[in-house]
Each structure stands twice: as C-alpha cells, then as structure tokens.
Known about the structure:
The chain is mostly beta strands and 552 residues long. Helices cover 6% and strands 35% of the residues.
Amino acid sequence: MNTHGRTFVILVFLAALTFGARWATRPVAAQDASSQNAWNMEWVGASLDKGQVDVQSYSKLAPWPDTDGQYLYSGCYDPAPLVPKPGASQCFMTVSLKDPENPVRLATVYIYDLEASPKPPTSHTVWRSPALAALPVSVPCDTFKDPAVLAGTKSPACWDPGWNTHTHYVAEGPGKILAVNEERWRSGTDTQASYHGVSFYDVADPAHPVFLSRWQAPVSDPVNGHFPDSGGAHHFNFKNQGQPGYQTNINDRYLFLGTEYKGYIERILVILDVRDPRHPVEAGKWHIPGQKTPEEDAQRDWVHQRNFSSPVRPDPATGKLTKSVGMHYATVYGNLAFLAYHQAGLVILDVQDMKNPKLLSRLDYLVPGFDDPTMPEAMKRFDIDKTAYGNAHSAKLVPGRPNLLWLTDEYFSCPYGHLRMVDVADPRKPRIISHFLYPENTACDPGNPGRTAYPTRFPRRGPSTHIGNARADGLLFLAWYGMCARVIDIRDPAHPVEAGRYVYQVDPAQPAFAGCDTYDVTFGPGGLLYVSDGTSGLRVVKYTGAAVVPKK
C-alpha cells in the first residue's frame, strides 16, 4: 500500500474511534472522517451545532488569511435545494475555535427578527406581484402572523426589507469591526424592498455582536413595480486586509466594495470610509466607462448580460460582445487595488487618492481570440477564437511575492472556472503566465456542451474555482466548489501543480444538503485550515504534505 493509502486508512480508523459516538446521532451537517478522501490533508474536526436552521450554510470566512485560532466569522448561505427555513441565508455567525475538533457557534445574528417579524413563505404571491411592491416598510412587520394574510385572502399591511436580503459575506476590519453584506435575497425577486449595502458590527465580544450602523447605496424608485438597481453589495474587503499589522491600523478602515448604484448598469466600485464605524461615509467610487446610464450609453462597447455564466460572444444584432460587466471583488495593497470585474477581467487601480481612483490597466482576457500563449490545450477545443468562457471572481497577491497574483474565475457552465497566475511586476502591463485546471473543468456532456459530463458528482455546483488563501511558502489553498478544497503549489508560477486535496461527501439519504459546495479556506495556528461549505458545515483540517521552501 502506498503512503497515500496508509494515510487514508489511518485517518478513517482514528476518526471512527474519536468521532463515532458523536456523529452517530447527528442529523446532517459536516460529515466524519470516514466520508473523506484526502491527500496531504487530514481531518481534525467540524462544527457540531445541532438544530439551528442555518447550521449547514457557512460561506465567506473572516478574518483572512489568518485567524487568531480563537474566533472566526462567517456569513450564512442557502441550502440546496433551497429549503424554506427562516433566516437560512440571512444571518452571520461568530464561531469559537478554541477546540479545533469542535468549533462552537457563539452567536447567530439575523437581519430580521424571526419572532416579531416572521417572513412570508416563498410560495406567497407577495414575492412576485408588482401590485404589492409598494407595501409600507416597517421594522419589524408582524403582518404575516395573520392567518388570512398567509392564506392570501387578505392583503399584507407592511414589509420588512430584511426578508428580501441575503447576507453571505463578512470582512473583519481593524479594531474588531465586522462588515456584513446586504444584497437582494437569492430568490431572484426584485418586486420587494430589500437592504442594499453594508451593515457594521462591533465584535469585540464575539458572543455578543453589537450593531453599529448601516450604509445603503443610492437606488432608484420602483419602475412598474420593480426595483431596478437595488441588488446591493456582494463582495468587499478592507484596505490592506491580510497585511502584517493590519488589525491595529485604524487608518485601514476603508472598505472597497462592489454594489449596484443608482444610475449605473451592474455593480461599480464604491469606497467607504469606516474610520467612524457608526457613521460610514462614501469616500469615492469608480466604474468602467459605459456603465453609467444614460450618460454613457453611446460609448458602451458591450451588450449587457445578467448571467455571468453565459459565454462572451458577438451579439448578432449589434456585433458588440455580450458581457456581464460589474465590480465583483477587490483586494487593496497600499495604493494598488486589484479588481475582479466579472467578464471585464482584471482591473488595476491607483487608489492613493481615493476620491479619484486612476486606472492603471485592464487585463480584459475574456475576449474571443484573446492572445494568450499560455492557454491550455484543453480550452482550445472550445472554439476560443469565437467565444470566451469565464468570469473574474477574485484576485490576491501571493504573500512575499508582490509581483505575483492569483486570479480565479467563477463560472458555472462547462468549461468551468479555473485558476490563472498573473505577473503584476508592472501594474500597467499585467500578463497571464499560466493556467491551472482539472480534467473535470473541461469534461462537457456531448449532448449538452454547457454542462458537465459528471452530473452525479456535482449535484450543487460545477467544478469551478472560488476563493481561498495562499501561504508565504508558495502553497495556494482554494475552495474549488464541486471538487472541495484543493492545494496548488505555485512556487513555480509558470507551472502550478496540485499538492493536496480534501474531498468530502455527504449522506445521499440527505438530498437537501449537496455537500462539496466549498466556499472558502482560511488559516489557523499550527497549520490548521478552516473549510466552509454552503450546504454542509464548517470543517477543520490540516495540511500534512512535506514542508516546502518558497522560490524567489
């Protein structure tokens, strides 16, 4: 038996002894080590919460890249298939890590009051009726305590915007300030009011977060019963997040976020000054020319498509490219901001003057026929001269290597999103130096080329990259959605190779929880890794591969 096999057998045996009794009575959530398949990774523990409605739905973890080994924070996410449980994706959590075998939920903070302001069921006509879009906003709103309102025989009297708000993303800023995103709930409705910005909490006592303030992006009034630009904030990060000394530098309390905003198509970059977290103020904003409407309609050189998992190709009517152009994810190091801008690619800004960010470059690689000599052969068979596939999701610098950036694509059609390494030594001239993908990324169903050939292996998501973190030793730990957590050795960025994997499954008798809906990976002391999943909990694992020496 090889080393990999021996490690796995030992892992299963130890897990059975240690966790068997505890897991025997568990209904769902994260599974024990006997359901894992690991290489250079070993099981340590998992969240052991029971009974909470959102126990499965961990998502973005904070802080990044390193926790202090004491606490972490997570947004909440949707179960899949969507289970209409109260607050399932409308909360954030604080978690104690003091016992790595058993992380403990300290607090779950919902965006609306589940008791005083019960949410209408997803089947209620109020979610899809423009005639009911102008309900008076009230917090809380108890109208759905009335059986007649629930039955649809009586019109509801008010609306709580928290019902239509999704809070899956968190970021911890200096001084124990937590930012929580607020975007329109993932039911897809735009016929009801929602929060559309960021809320801020004091988490000096993680067991008792204290609400401080809420910033809301300007939005238009409803048009024919629909809210046109109130999608809200999706992702964000504080300036210099992840840098040494970050947690003590209050001057880094500038939040760079992507949000819908009145007068613009799709999300733009907004910079918030949060030095006084009770009174956040807009410090600046930036957008790609053509997003401002109607002023820039004539100069827009693309046809907007809402779905970022649709390919980029010429529009038959106009000849322009169909693209989803919107600000998605920002990381800011000193005066440089790296923006993953959906199907507009990678944008690099000089943000020394935050009131007036200056464009340094745009790596618009999602263009049919884009000149990329590093493009893998597996991608070339997709007629890339006529069609481009992908969606820039996130970009971060490699610790200790400020000239090297890793960039992920979040793309849920085949060929699925993969990893690119980018040389940013000259931020005015970034260049792709390599790609990393798995055979599953390009294994399309011959009868349906946009879908995977392995549907039973990916019941929730296709095998697309998402977010994670790199270490100074040149190992990149990535959440790869349907393929779980992966370790990529990027010491030679021109030739990245796999260095480990942690693949888990859930009980097939629990179809509501797809498993391997891996969202994020962050670090703890002693080599611990925290792996969040959008449907099946929080896992604690450890990388066991050989120590590596970072290449210069």
